[in-house]
Amino acid sequence: MEKYVCTVCGYLYNPAEGDLDAGIPAGTAFADLPEDWVCPVCGAKKDDFEPDE
């Protein structure tokens, strides 16, 4: 699964790790994150993320 990076702060969403603090289990693809999910570091919206190269 592809990793995504926040263009605002550089946080890297890794699907293998999920976002446990937000209740997102490991193995959750970025596309499957809820639309209201935000960056756990800066609060940016999903639209502010892009695939990590």
UniProtKB/TrEMBL annotation:
GO terms for biological process: alkane catabolic process. InterPro entries: Rubredoxin, Rubredoxin-like_dom, Rubredoxin_dom, Rubredoxin_ET, Rubredoxin_Fe_BS. The keyword Iron applies. Its cofactor is Fe(3+). It comes from the Bacteria. The keyword Metal-binding applies. Signal peptide: none annotated. Residues 1-52 form the Rubredoxin-like domain. Fe cation binds at residues 6, 9, 39, 42. GO terms for molecular function: electron transfer activity; iron ion binding. Keywords: Electron transport, Iron, Metal-binding, Transport. Binds 1 Fe(3+) ion per subunit. PROSITE patterns: RUBREDOXIN (PS00202), RUBREDOXIN_LIKE (PS50903). Belongs to the rubredoxin family. NCBIfam families: RubredRD. This is Rubredoxin. It comes from Fischerella thermalis JSC-11. The lineage of its organism: Bacteria, Bacillati, Cyanobacteriota, Cyanophyceae, Nostocales.
